[in-house]
Amino acid sequence: MTFRLATWNIEWFDRLFDDDGQPQHSEGWSARYQVTKARQLEAIATVLRHVDADAVLVVEAPDDSHRRSTRVALEIFAEEAGLRQAWAMIGFANATRQELALLYDPAQVTPRHAPGTTAEAPRFDGTLGFDLDSDLRAESLVWSKPPLELDLQTPVGPLHMIGVHAKSKAAHGAVDPADELRLNILNRRKQLAQCIWLRRRVDQRLAEGRQLIVAGDFNDGPGLDRFETLFGRSGVEIVLGDGPTALTDPHAITPRLGAAIPSTARFWDNANRRYLNALLDFAMVSPGLAPRARWRILHPFDDPDAAGNRVLQAALLDASDHFPVVLDLDAPPPQL
Fold it and tell me: What fold is seen in the domain 2-330?
């Protein structure tokens, strides 16, 4: 018996639906460069059918507001696409039009929204006092996209999942190089503080004896940029932790010089006229799950199945600038 979870950032999924949650199979442009809405929708469906997960953490899921419903949009899409992941749910909605949602097969998974809170780690839709700039005064830290905490009943037993879309470190709005440096440092401080908040929740859940998965887009990774030296650790390394309570994702390891580096995202660098690969998406598991876990990144060029399947490869490139991370968990061994 195996439980399959995938995490996938689907670029601006919201723009493919109208206010009634109806997918827009039109020849108008999507948010993907020179990809129509109809083509992106079909590409997303093709990838999800191939992954065939029991549950998918959808990062950048359609908007949830007084006018739009994430659940309705995803469930209509799933029905049209013939997906067995026919039901959807979210936790705390946000104002960015990029929700965190679980699309799941109700015959295999029963989720329940289960947000946690402690004095050191308030509920993720709340505020954390944190000194971001070392002036001995706490700033008010909030998540623009509050993590999704779920209790899951699965074929391999009960699990607790935290779905994540951490802050981007990009210096949007910079007016000159000095301003860009300032924004880069400020955004990294905010991203690291979010990851500290997240790790505190991980510690809480592990202390409760939970089997834990932390998955999603962290907008960060070991060895990703020059600011890691300034701050000592990446946000991903903070969430992973160390010692007996460390989480595991085999891709989340600081790369050795000359070693092949896995990637989960591919972006166009207009300044240098080339594509850049980045490792931003992870599926971390608690110590009790690690021995029976297997990971795969469905990269269009690095994954042998995708590279050898022209239809799947094209769908991955059309669907998003991120690629799915697939986690398979085997059932625990029988008790003697």
Answer: Deoxyribonuclease I; Chain A (3.60.10)
